[in-house]
Amino acid sequence: MNDYTTVDGARVGVLMGSASDWPTMEKASKTLSDLGVIHECNVISAHRAAKRLEHYCQHAEARGIQILICAAGGAAHLAGVAAAMTHLPILGCPMKAWSTEGLDSLLSMAQMPKGIPVGTLAVGSAGAINAALLAVSVLSLSDDALRERYLAFRAAQSEATFSLPGAPGHPSE
Ligand code: RP5
Hints:
This protein is an alpha/beta fold and 173 residues long. The chain is built from six helices and five strands, in the order E-H-E-H-E-H-E-H-E-H-H. The chain has helices at 22-34, 50-60, 78-85, 103-110, 125-140, 144-161; strands at residues 12-16, 39-43, 67-73, 90-95, 119-120. Strands 2-1-3-4-5 form a five-stranded parallel β-sheet, with helices on both faces. Helix 5 (125-140) crosses helix 6. It is globular and about 60 Å long. It binds 5-O-phosphono-beta-D-ribofuranose (RP5). Residues 16-18, 20-21, 45, 72-74, 95, 97 line the site of 5-O-phosphono-beta-D-ribofuranose.
């Protein structure tokens, strides 16, 4: 039943419906790692492994997980089902699956009926990275060291925005 991978000290659980989601969700994992957030990643499909998902969601908080990032494509119900099974915040990442460029996934997550929220991000890599950053932002509210790292990331990103190497009047590096 609990055939999934746990990581000691993990505060964020990244779930995806299929290993085919990993090339995208790896970017969420890397973002969390870069900012020093211990996390764990698992493939737990809502429809192929419903009992496992239920077990994961019911035990996540007791293991120290504070936020779940759920990625799925197509009729992407993983985030919504997870949200039904735990009160932890759920960030939904719509995947580009096999049709409609991910619009089906986006609507599946964003159009949750009232009462069980899923915070839905953009389709694909941008959403995956932003889900990780949003998780960092929330965890930063009660973690001063993480807050400092997040602020440093934001500052570095702002600096980079103004750099245009090779363009007229800009330094080459
Ligand atoms: C969803 O269906 C997964 O999240 C994935 O995005 C999509 C396709 O899954 P596979 O058929 O590649 O396993 O369940």
